[in-house]
C-alpha cells in the first residue's frame, strides 16, 4: 500500500463521515460546518488528482463563499428551526433505502467495467495543468463560449437571487 | 347594351339580387322609398324579359341566349343558363308577377326593407330554376327559393291564428303561420331529398351536371349500377324526381302544405306562391322528368294521371268544403295544377303524338294561366282581408253594393279561374282535356267531376262574399268597407288584360309553347 | 262589305257595349241604355242584311258563307275558328236578332227608365218604388228606376254576344264559348237581384245544373276533336268523317263513337235546354227580371241547347240508341213539365214549365228524326214564348203599379190568383198575350204554334213513333189547357184584388216589343205550311226547303195524313175550351182542383236532388275530403312524421346521446379520469422530496425492468 | 498507485449521502446542503476521469469549473428562495411548503 493510497483512504473516510454528519446532524450550523469539512476533503482529493486549480477553487469558492452563504442562510432562518422536532422526515428510511440502492446500483454498474482498474498515467513532463486549463477556458477553439455562458448564468442567478430574496415590505429604498 | 345582350339571362337572373343588396344600404325607415325602389328594380327584369321575348326565335332548336360561367369546377358543374320556349314562358310569368306582387305589397308597413329584399331574392331563386341548364344549379336555385318564402310566411304572415296539430302522439298548438311555414319548408325539403340524391347519382355517373349531356345519355343508359339493375335504379330515381316535384306542384296527396301556407302567407306571398312557385314543380316535370325518364314516365303515366285526377277531384271538393276564403282559393290551386299534371301524364304516355303535344300545350298554358288567375284571386282575397281582417266566408255577405268595382273584378277573375270560355283558363283546360282524353280516357272523364266542382266552389265564393243580403256590419261606421283603390286596380289591370287577351287570342303565346313542346319532345 | 266580314261583325256590338258600359258609361243610365239598345240595333241590322243575302243564295246549304282564321296551334296544325251562315244559321239568326232587339227595348221600360230614384232602393234588390209629391201636394208612390240599370244592359249585351257567337260559329268550340258565356250571363242575370237569397240560390242552381251538362259536352267536344281532328261542322259532316265516327268503338255501353259523342253533346243540351232530369234550374230562374226570363227561356239560352242538337243532328242520327235516348228524354220532358205547369200559380213559373215542355217537343222531334219540324218549332216557339214572357212581365209590372198604389206589399204581383180582369186595364198586353197563348196552344191555322206543333205530330205519326205521338198529343192538350187557365185567371173575369183593380198599362217601350213579337207569333207559322196540307198542293213550304237544305240529304216531305191534323185540332181546341170552362169559375187557389201537392211541388225533384246530390256533395267536400282525407289522413300522416321525428330525436337524445354518449362515453371518461385523478391526487402532495423519491423509485423500477428484460440481450 | 475505481466508489458514496440528505432532510437549507454534496461527487468524477484519461484534454476540468459556477448560482437562487419562502410562510420545512399540489 503506497502512501498515496493511505492518504486517499484517510481523506475519503473523513470526507464521507463529514458528509454523513452533514445529512444527519440536528443542528444546521453544525451541518454547515461539517459541510466545510467535507469540502476540504474533496479539495484534498482534487489535489491527489493533480487538479491543483480545482483544489484551490474548491477551497476558495465552496468553503469561502458557498459554505459561508449557507451559514448565513441558516442563521437567517434559524429562529424556527432550532430544535424543532426531527430533522428527518417520516419517510427517511425510504430515502436511505433509495440512497443505498443508488449507491449499490452505481457500484454494481461500475463493477463490470473494464476501465475500473486503470491506473493514472504519469503527468507529462513540463505539462502545466493550470495554464492548460486557462488556455482551454478562454481559447476560441475550446470552451470560451460555455465559459461565457456560465458567467452570464451566474450573473442572471445573482440578479434573480436578489430579486427573489428582496423583501418588498421592507424595501423602502425602492421608493 | 352589347354586354347586357350577351349576358341577358345573367342580368335578368341576378338583377333582383343586386337590387336587394343595394337596398341594404337604403335607410330602413323610408318605407315609400323602399317600396318604390323595389318595385322599380323588379320592373327591370320584366322589361328585359319582354325584350328577351322579342328577341327570342321560337323556331330555333335548343336553348337560346345560352351562357356558361364557371361555378364549381371540381364537380364539373357550371352556371349554365339557357332559354327555350318553355322557360321563356315561365320567366315571363315570374318577371311579370314579381312587380305586380311588389305593387300589391305596398300596404305592408312592417319591416318593409326586409320584406322587399326577401321578395327580390325570391325572384332570383325562381328565375334561376327556370333558366338553369345544369342539374346542380337547378337544385341550388330550387332550394334557394324556399328560404325567402319561409321567412315571408313566418314573419309577415297572418299574425292571428293558432293551429292545433293532432297526431297519434297527442296534440299541441302552435302559431298558425309558424306551423304553415314549417310545413311548407320541411315538406318541400323533405320532398327534394330524393331529388338531390338522384341528381348526385347522375352527377357521379356522368362526371358532370350538364342537362343536355345527361338527357342525351341517361335515357338510353343500360349498364348496371352498383350491382343493381339499371331499370330499378331508374325507377327509383324517377320516383325521387316525381315526389320532389309532386310536393311542389302540389299533387294529391302531397298537397296539404299548400292551403296552410297560402292561408297564412301575406297576400303578395300567396300571389307568388300560387303564381310561380307551384309552377316550379310542373316545370320540373317537363324539364327533367319527361326528358330524363321517358320510358318510366310512360310506364307510370297511369299512376301520375291517377294522382292528378285525385288532385283535380279532391282539390275541388276540398275547396268547396272551405269556409275560409283564402283556403278556398288555395285549394283551387290544387285543382288547377292537377290539370297541368294530367296533361303531362297524358303526354308521357304517348310522347311525340299530336295528342301529347296538345296536352303539353295545354299543360304549359295552364301553368301560365293559373299564374295569372290565382295571383289575381289571392290578391283580391287579400284586398278584402286587409279591410275586414277576416277571411271567414260567413262573415261577409252581400258586399257587392258597397264595392261594385271590386265585385266586378272579383267576378271576372273568378270566372277566369272557373275556366269560362273566352277567358284564359278555358283554353288551357280544353287543350288538356282534348289531349288527355284519347290517351287517358277514364281519368280525363273522372276529372270532369273536378271541373264541375270548380264551378261549385267559385260560385260559393262569390255567393258568400258578394251576393246575398248585405251584412250590415260592413256598411256603416268604422267597419265600413271601402272600395278597391287605384293602386289595387293597377295591380289587377295587367292580370285582367292578359286573362282576356289570352282567352280571346291565345296564339301569340301558344305558338311559342307549341313550338317548344314540339322540339322538346 | 262582304257577307263574311259582316258575319264576323255581328256579335261584336253587344260585346263592345258590354265593355263600354262597364268601363265608361255605367254612371249614366241614359247613355248606357243607348249604347246597349244601339248595339242591339246594329247587330239586328247586320243580321238582317246577312239573312236577306242568305235568302238570295241558291243552294246555300252546299255553299254557305264561311270564313275562318287560325286560332290555336296544335302541334303541326292549327285549330281554326270561324263563322259560317248556312240556312239553319240564317233562320236562327233571324229570330235571335229580332227577339234580342225587342228584349233590349223592353228592358228600358221594364226597369222604369225616367222614373225617380227609389226611397229605399239598394243595389241588389228590386226597386221598391219612390214617393213623389205632385203639384197639389198629394203624395204618390210610383215605380222607381232600377238602381243597377246600366249594369243590366251590360249583362244583356254580353248575353247577346254569347248568343250571336253561338249562332254564327262554324265550329263546336266557339259555339261552346258562346254557350258558356250565356251560362255566365244567365247566372249574373238570374242573380241580378243578388240581395235576395232566393235569387242568389237560383243563379247558382242555374249555373251548376247547366254546368253538369256543359262538362259532358266538353268531354264530347274533346272526344269528337280527337276522333276527327277538327271541330268545324262542315268538315265533320262529310260522309267519310261520319262513317269514320261510326266505325270507332269507344267500348262504352255498346255505343258507336258517333253515338257516344252525340250522347255527350246531348247531355250538354239537356242541361242547357232544361230537359229532364236537369230541368230543375229553369223554373227557379224566374227570380231574374222578366226580360231576362224572356232572354233565357225564349230567345237565347234554352234555344241554344236545341240549336246545338239540331246542328249536331247529322252526327246524332248516326246512332240509333242515341236517337232513342233523345226521343225519350224529349217526350218525357214534354209531358212531365206540362203536368207541373198545370199546378203552378206564379204567372212566370207556368211559362217556365211550359218552356220546358215545349223544348221537350223539339227534342222529341229531333229524336224521331224530324229535323225541320224541330227547327221550325224552335223558331216559332222563340217568338211566341218571348212574347208570353214579355207579356207576363208587362202584367207583373202593371200589378206592381197596383201594389204601389195600395201600399200592400204582402200581395204577390206574380200570383195569378191575385189577378183577374186585367183585360180592361191592360188591353195591349191582353191581346198580345192572347195571341202568344193561342200560338203556344197551337190554335189552328192562324197561329205559328199550330203549324210547327202539327208538323212534329205529323212526323211522329208518319214515322210510326206511336208512343211519342200519343204522349206529345197529350202534352199538347195539357199545354192548351194550362195556357187557357193562365189567360182566364189573369185577364178574364173580374179583378180579385184591389191591386188588380189599380193595375195599369205599361209604357210604349214595353208594348211595342209585344206587338212586334205578336206579328211573328202569327205570321211566322205561314212560312212553314206544308205543301201537301189537306192535299191542297200549295206552294212548297219555304221553311222546309230553306232549312232542310242545311242537311246533305234533303229531308223528304212527309205525306199528308188527316189523323195527326185532327188530333192536333182536337187537343188544341179542346184544351183551350176546357181550360176556359173550368177556370172562369175558379176564384182562388183552394177551389182549383189541380192544386195537387205532387204537381205543385214539381214531383219533389228539388227535394230529392237536395238529398241525393247536394247534401252528399257537401258532406263529401266538408267532411270526407277536407276533414277526413286532408286533415285527418294526409295531415295525420304528416303529423305523424313531425312528432315521430321528434320522438326519434328524443329517443336518440334520451337513450343514446344522454345515456351512452354523454353519460357513458363523455361523462364516463371524465368520471374515470376524475376518479383516477382523485385516487392519484394524494401523490400530488406538493412536497418536492416525495416527488423526487417517487421519480427515483420509478427510475429504479424502470431501470431494473430494462435491465432484467433487455439486459439478457445486452 | 490509486486505481480509478477508488475515486469512483468514493464519489458514488458521497453522491448517495447527498441524495439521502436531499430526500430525507426536512429543512430546505439542509436539502440544499445535500445538493452540494451531490455536485461535489460529480466534480470528483469529472476530475478523476480527466486525470485517468488524456491529461492534455482539459474538458473534464472545464466541466468541473462550470459545475462550480452552476453550483454557486444554484445556491444563490436556492437560498434566496428559501429566504423568500421563509419570509412569507415563516417556515423552511420542505413538507410545509406544498403550494405546488393540485
Which tags fit this structure?
heterotetramer; A: 175 residues; mainly alpha; Four Helix Bundle (Hemerythrin (Met), subunit A); 7 helices; D: mainly alpha; Helix Hairpins; elongated
What's this model, at a glance?
By secondary structure, chain A is mostly helical. In chain A, 71% of the residues lie in helices and 0% in strands.
Protein architecture, described:
The complex is a heterotetramer of chains A (175), B (521), C (714) and D (102). Chain B is mainly alpha-helical and 521 residues long. Chain B is built from 21 helices and 4 strands. Chain B has a domain at 300-521. Chain B has helices spanning 2-6, 8-23, 31-55, 85-104, 112-131, 135-144, 146-156, 176-206, 211-218, 230-248, 257-264, 267-292, 294-299, 301-320, 325-349, 354-388, 404-418, 424-439, 441-465, 486-504, 507-520, and strands at residues 64-72, 77-83, 162-167, 170-175. In chain B, α4 (85-104) packs antiparallel against α5 (112-131). Chain B is globular, with a radius of gyration of 22 Å. The model of chain B has no long low-confidence stretch (mean pLDDT 87). Among the domains of chain C are: 1-111 and 151-169; 115-145, no CATH class; 395-594, no CATH class; 609-649 and 680-713. Chain D is built from 3 helices and no strands. Chains in contact: A-C, A-D, B-C, C-D. Chains A and D meet through α1, α2, α3, α5 and α6 of A and α1, α2 and α3 of D.
How is the topology of this model organized?
The complex is a heterotetramer of chains A (175), B (521), C (714) and D (102).
Chain A: H1 3-24, H2 28-48, H3 52-76, H4 78-81, H5 92-111, H6 129-138, H7 144-165
Chain B: H1 2-6, H2 8-23, H3 31-55, E1 64-72, E2 77-83, H4 85-104, H5 112-131, H6 135-144, H7 146-156, E3 162-167, E4 170-175, H8 176-206, H9 211-218, H10 230-248, H11 257-264, H12 267-292, H13 294-299, H14 301-320, H15 325-349, H16 354-388, H17 404-418, H18 424-439, H19 441-465, H20 486-504, H21 507-520
Antiparallel strand pairs in B: 1-2, 3-4
Helix pairs in contact in B: 2-3, 2-5, 3-4, 3-5, 4-5, 4-12, 4-16, 4-20, 5-6, 5-7, 5-12, 6-8, 7-8, 8-10, 8-11, 10-12, 11-12, 11-15, 12-15, 12-16, 14-15, 14-19, 15-16, 15-18, 15-19, 16-17, 16-18, 16-20, 16-21, 17-19, 17-20, 18-19, 18-20
Chain C: H1 3-9, H2 12-23, H3 29-55, E1 65-74, E2 77-85, H4 87-110, E3 130-133, E4 139-142, H5 149-168, H6 172-190, H7 197-228, H8 233-236, H9 239-247, H10 257-272, H11 281-284, H12 290-299, H13 301-311, H14 313-316, H15 320-342, H16 347-367, H17 371-406, H18 422-425, H19 427-441, H20 448-462, H21 466-491, H22 498-501, H23 508-523, H24 542-548, H25 562-583, H26 597-600, H27 605-680, H28 688-710
Helix pairs in contact in C: 1-3, 2-3, 2-5, 3-4, 3-5, 4-5, 4-12, 4-17, 4-23, 5-6, 6-7, 6-13, 7-10, 10-13, 10-15, 12-17, 13-16, 13-17, 15-16, 15-21, 16-17, 16-21, 17-19, 17-20, 17-23, 17-24, 19-21, 19-23, 20-21, 20-25, 21-25
Amino acid at each position: 500500500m503506497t502512501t498515496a493510497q493511505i492518504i486517499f483512504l484517510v481523506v475519503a473516510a473523513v470526507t464521507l463521515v463529514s458528509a454523513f454528519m452533514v445529512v444527519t446532524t440536528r443542528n444546521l450550523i453544525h451541518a454547515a460546518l461539517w459541510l466545510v469539512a467535507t469540502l476540504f476533503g474533496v479539495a484534498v482529493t482534487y489535489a491527489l488528482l493533480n487538479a491543483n486549480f480545482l483544489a484551490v477553487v474548491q477551497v476558495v469558492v465552496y468553503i469561502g463563499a458557498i459554505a459561508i452563504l449557507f451559514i448565513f442562510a441558516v442563521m437567517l432562518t434559524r429562529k424556527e428551526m432550532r430544535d424543532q422536532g426531527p430533522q428527518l422526515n417520516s419517510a427517511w428510511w425510504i430515502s436511505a433505502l433509495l440512497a443505498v440502492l443508488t449507491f449499490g446500483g452505481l457500484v454494481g454498474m461500475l463493477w463490470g467495467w473494464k476501465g475500473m482498474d486503470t491506473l493514472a498515467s504519469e503527468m507529462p513532463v513540463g505539462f502545466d495543468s493550470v495554464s492548460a486549463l486557462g488556455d482551454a477556458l478562454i481559447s476560441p477553439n475550446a470552451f470560451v463560449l460555455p465559459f461565457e455562458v456560465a458567467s452570464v448564468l451566474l450573473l442572471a442567478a445573482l440578479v434573480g437571487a436578489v430579486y427573489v430574496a428582496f423583501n418588498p415590505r421592507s424595501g423602502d429604498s425602492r421608493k | 347594351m352589347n354586354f347586357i345582350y350577351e349576358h341577358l339571362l345573367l342580368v335578368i337572373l341576378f338583377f333582383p339580387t343586386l337590387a336587394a343588396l343595394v337596398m341594404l344600404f337604403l335607410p330602413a325607415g323610408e318605407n315609400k322609398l323602399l317600396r318604390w325602389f323595389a318595385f322599380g328594380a323588379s320592373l327591370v327584369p320584366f322589361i328585359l324579359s319582354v325584350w328577351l321575348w322579342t328577341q327570342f326565335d321560337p323556331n330555333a332548336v335548343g336553348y337560346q341566349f345560352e351562357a356558361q360561367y364557371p361555378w364549381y369546377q371540381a364537380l364539373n358543374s357550371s352556371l349554365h343558363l339557357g332559354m327555350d320556349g318553355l322557360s321563356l314562358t315561365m320567366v315571363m310569368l315570374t318577371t311579370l308577377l314579381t312587380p305586380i306582387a311588389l305593387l300589391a305589397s305596398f300596404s305592408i308597413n312592417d319591416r318593409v326593407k326586409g320584406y322587399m329584399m326577401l321578395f327580390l331574392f325570391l325572384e332570383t331563386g325562381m328565375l334561376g330554376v327556370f333558366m338553369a341548364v345544369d342539374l346542380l344549379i337547378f337544385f341550388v336555385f330550387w332550394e334557394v327559393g324556399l328560404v325567402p318564402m319561409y321567412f315571408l310566411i313566418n314573419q309577415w304572415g297572418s299574425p292571428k291564428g293558432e293551429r292545433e296539430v293532432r297526431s297519434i302522439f297527442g296534440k299541441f298548438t302552435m302559431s298558425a303561420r309558424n306551423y304553415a311555414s314549417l310545413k311548407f319548408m320541411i315538406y318541400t325539403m323533405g320532398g327534394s331529398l330524393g331529388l338531390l340524391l338522384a341528381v348526385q347519382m347522375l352527377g357521379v355517373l356522368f362526371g358532370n351536371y350538364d342537362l343536355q349531356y345527361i338527357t342525351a345519355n341517361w335515357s338510353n343508359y343500360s349498364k348496371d349500377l352498383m350491382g343493381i339493375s339499371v331499370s330499378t335504379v331508374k325507377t327509383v330515381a324517377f320516383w325521387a324526381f316525381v315526389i320532389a316535384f309532386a310536393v311542389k306542384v302540389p299533387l294529391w296527396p302531397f298537397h296539404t302544405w299548400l292551403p296552410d301556407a297560402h292561408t297564412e302567407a301575406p297576400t303578395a306571398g300567396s300571389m307568388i306562391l300560387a303564381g310561380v312557385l307551384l309552377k316550379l314543380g310542373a316545370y320540373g316535370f317537363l324539364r327533367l322528368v319527361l326528358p330524363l325518364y321517358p320510358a318510366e314516365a310512360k310506364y307510370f303515366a297511369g299512376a301520375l294521371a291517377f294522382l292528378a285526377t285525385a288532385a283535380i277531384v279532391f282539390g275541388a271538393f276540398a275547396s268547396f268544403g272551405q269556409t275560409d276564403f283564402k283556403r278556398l282559393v288555395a285549394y283551387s290551386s290544387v285543382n288547377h295544377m292537377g290539370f297541368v299534371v294530367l296533361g303531362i301524364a297524358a303526354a308521357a304516355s304517348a310522347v311525340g303524338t299530336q295528342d301529347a303535344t296538345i296536352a303539353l300545350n295545354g299543360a304549359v298554358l295552364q301553368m301560365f294561366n293559373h299564374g295569372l288567375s290565382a295571383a289575381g284571386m289571392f290578391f283580391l282575397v287579400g284586398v278584402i282581408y286587409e279591410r275586414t281582417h277576416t277571411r271567414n266566408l260567413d262573415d261577409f255577405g252581400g258586399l257587392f253594393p258597397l264595392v261594385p268595382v271590386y265585385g266586378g273584378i272579383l267576378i271576372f277573375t273568378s270566372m277566369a279561374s272557373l275556366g269560362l270560355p273566352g277567358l284564359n283558363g278555358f283554353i288551357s283546360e280544353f287543350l288538356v282535356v282534348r289531349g288527355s282524353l284519347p290517351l287517358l280516357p277514364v281519368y280525363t272523364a273522372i276529372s270532369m267531376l273536378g271541373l264541375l266542382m270548380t264551378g261549385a266552389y267559385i260560385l260559393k265564393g262569390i255567393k258568400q262574399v258578394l251576393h246575398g243580403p248585405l251584412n250590415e256590419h260592413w256598411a256603416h261606421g268604422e267597419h265600413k268597407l271601402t272600395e278597391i283603390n287605384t293602386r289595387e286596380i293597377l295591380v289587377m289591370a295587367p292580370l285582367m288584360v292578359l286573362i282576356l287577351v289570352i282567352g280571346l287570342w291565345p296564339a301569340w303565346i301558344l305558338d311559342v309553347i307549341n313550338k317548344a313542346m314540339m322540339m322538346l319532345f | 262589305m262582304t257577307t263574311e266580314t259582316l258575319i264576323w261583325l255581328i256579335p261584336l256590338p253587344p260585346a263592345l257595349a258590354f265593355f263600354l258600359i262597364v268601363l265608361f258609361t255605367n254612371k249614366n243610365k241614359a247613355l248606357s241604355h243607348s249604347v246597349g239598345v244601339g248595339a242591339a240595333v246594329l247587330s239586328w241590322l247586320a243580321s238582317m242584311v246577312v239573312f236577306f243575302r242568305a235568302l238570295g243564295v241558291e243552294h246555300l246549304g252546299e255553299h254557305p258563307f264561311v270564313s275562318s282564321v287560325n286560332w290555336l296551334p296544335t302541334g303541326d296544325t292549327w285549330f281554326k275558328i270561324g263563322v259560317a251562315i248556312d240556312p239553319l244559321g240564317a233562320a236562327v239568326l233571324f229570330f235571335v236578332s229580332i227577339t234580342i232587339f225587342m228584349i233590349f227595348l223592353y228592358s228600358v221600360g221594364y226597369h222604369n227608365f225616367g222614373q225617380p230614384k227609389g226611397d229605399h232602393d239598394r243595389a241588389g234588390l228590386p226597386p221598391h218604388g219612390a214617393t213623389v209629391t205632385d203639384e197639389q201636394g198629394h203624395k204618390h208612390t210610383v215605380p222607381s228606376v232600377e238602381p243597377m240599370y246600366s249594369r243590366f244592359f251590360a249583362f244583356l249585351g254580353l248575353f247577346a254576344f254569347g248568343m250571336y257567337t253561338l249562332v254564327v260559329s262554324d265550329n263546336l268550340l266557339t259555339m261552346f264559348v258562346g254557350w258558356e258565356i250565356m251560362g255566365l250571363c244567365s247566372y249574373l242575370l238570374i242573380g241580378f237581384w243578388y240581395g235576395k237569397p232566393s235569387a242568389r240560390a237560383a243563379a247558382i242552381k242555374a249555373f251548376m245544373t247547366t254546368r253538369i251538362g256543359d262538362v259532358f259536352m266538353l268531354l264530347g267536344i274533346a272526344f269528337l276533336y280527337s276522333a276527327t281532328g277538327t271541330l268545324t261542322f262542315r268538315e265533320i259532316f262529310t260522309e267519310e268523317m261520319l262513317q269514320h265516327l261510326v266505325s270507332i268503338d269507344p267500348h262504352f255501353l255498346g255505343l258507336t263513337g258517333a253515338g257516344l259523342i252525340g250522347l255527350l253533346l246531348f247531355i250538354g243540351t239537356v242541361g242547357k235546354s232544361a230537359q229532364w232530369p236537369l230541368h230543375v234550374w229553369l223554373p227557379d230562374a224566374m227570380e231574374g227580371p222578366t226580360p231576362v226570363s224572356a232572354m233565357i227561356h225564349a230567345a237565347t239560352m234554352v234555344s241554344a241547347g236545341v240549336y246545338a242538337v239540331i246542328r249536331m243532328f247529322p252526327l246524332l242520327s248516326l246512332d240509333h240508341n242515341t236517337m232513342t235516348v233523345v226521343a225519350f228524354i224529349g217526350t218525357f220532358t214534354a209531358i212531365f213539365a206540362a203536368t207541373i205547369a198545370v199546378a203552378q200559380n206564379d204567372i212566370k213559373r207556368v211559362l217556365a214549365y211550359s218552356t220546358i215542355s215545349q223544348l221537350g217537343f223539339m227534342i222529341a222531334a229531333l229524336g224521331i228524326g224530324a229535323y225541320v219540324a224541330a227547327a221550325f218549332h224552335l223558331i216559332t216557339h222563340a217568338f211566341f214564348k218571348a212574347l208570353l214572357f214579355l207579356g207576363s212581365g208587362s202584367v207583373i209590372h202593371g200589378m206592381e203599379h197596383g201594389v204601389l198604389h195600395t201600399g200592400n206589399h204582402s200581395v204577390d204581383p206574380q200570383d195569378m190568383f191575385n189577378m183577374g180582369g186585367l183585360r180592361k186595364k191592360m188591353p195591349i198586353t191582353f191581346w198580345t198575350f192572347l195571341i202568344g197563348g193561342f200560338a203556344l196552344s197551337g190554335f189552328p191555322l192562324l197561329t205559328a204554334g199550330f203549324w210547327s206543333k202539327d208538323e212534329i205530330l205529323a212526323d211522329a205519326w208518319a214515322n210510326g213513333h206511336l208512343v211519342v205521338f200519343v204522349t206529345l198529343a197529350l202534352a199538347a192538350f195539357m199545354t192548351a189547357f194550362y195556357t187557357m187557365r193562365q189567360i182566364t185567371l189573369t185577364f178574364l173575369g173580374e179583378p180579385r184584388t184591389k191591386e188588380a183593380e189599380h193595375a195599369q198599362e205599361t209604357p210604349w217601350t214595353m208594348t211595342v216589343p209585344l206587338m212586334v213579337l205578336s206579328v211573328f207569333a202569327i205570321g211566322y207559322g205561314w212560312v212553314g205550311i206544308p205543301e201537301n196540307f189537306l192535299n191542297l198542293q200549295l206552294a212548297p213550304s219555304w221553311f222546309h226547303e230553306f232549312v232542310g237544305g242545311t242537311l246533305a240529304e234533303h229531308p223528304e216531305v212527309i205525306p199528308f195524313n188527316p189523323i195527326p191534323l185532327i188530333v192536333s185540332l182536337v187537343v188544341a181546341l179542346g184544351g183551350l175550351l176546357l181550360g176556359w170552362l173550368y177556370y172562369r169559375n175558379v176564384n182562388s187557389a183552394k177551389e182549383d182542383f189541380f192544386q195537387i201537392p205532387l204537381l205543385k211541388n214539381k214531383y219533389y225533384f228539388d227535394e230529392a236532388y237536395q238529398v241525393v246530390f247536394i247534401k252528399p256533395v257537401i258532406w263529401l267536400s266538408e267532411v270526407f275530403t277536407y276533414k277526413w282525407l286532408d286533415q285527418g289522413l294526409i295531415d295525420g300522416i304528416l303529423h305523424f312524421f313531425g312528432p315521430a321525428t321528434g320522438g326519434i330525436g328524443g329517443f336518440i337524445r334520451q337513450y343514446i346521446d344522454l345515456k351512452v354518449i354523454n353519460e357513458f362515453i363523455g361523462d364516463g371518461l371524465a368520471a374515470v379520469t376524475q376518479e383516477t385523478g382523485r385516487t392519484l391526487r394524494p401523490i400530488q402532495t406538493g412536497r418536492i422530496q416525495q416527488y423526487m423519491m417517487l421519480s427515483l423509485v420509478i427510475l429504479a423500477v424502470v431501470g431494473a425492468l430494462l435491465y432484467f428484460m433487455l439486459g439478457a440481450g445486452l | 498507485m490509486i486505481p480509478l475505481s477508488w475515486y469512483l466508489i468514493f464519489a458514488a458514496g458521497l453522491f448517495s449521502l447527498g441524495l439521502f440528505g436531499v430526500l430525507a432532510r426536512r429543512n430546505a437549507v439542509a436539502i440544499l446542503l445535500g445538493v452540494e454534496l451531490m455536485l461535489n461527487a460529480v466534480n470528483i468524477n469529472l476530475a478523476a476521469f480527466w486525470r485517468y484519461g488524456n491529461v492534455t484534454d482539459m474538458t473534464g476540468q472545464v466541466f468541473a469549473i462550470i459545475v462550480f459556477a452552476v453550483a454557486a448560482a444554484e445556491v444563490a437562487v436556492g437560498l434566496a428562495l428559501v429566504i423568500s419562502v421563509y419570509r412569507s410562510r415563516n417556515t423552511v420545512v420542505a413538507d410545509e411548503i406544498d403550494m405546488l399540489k393540485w
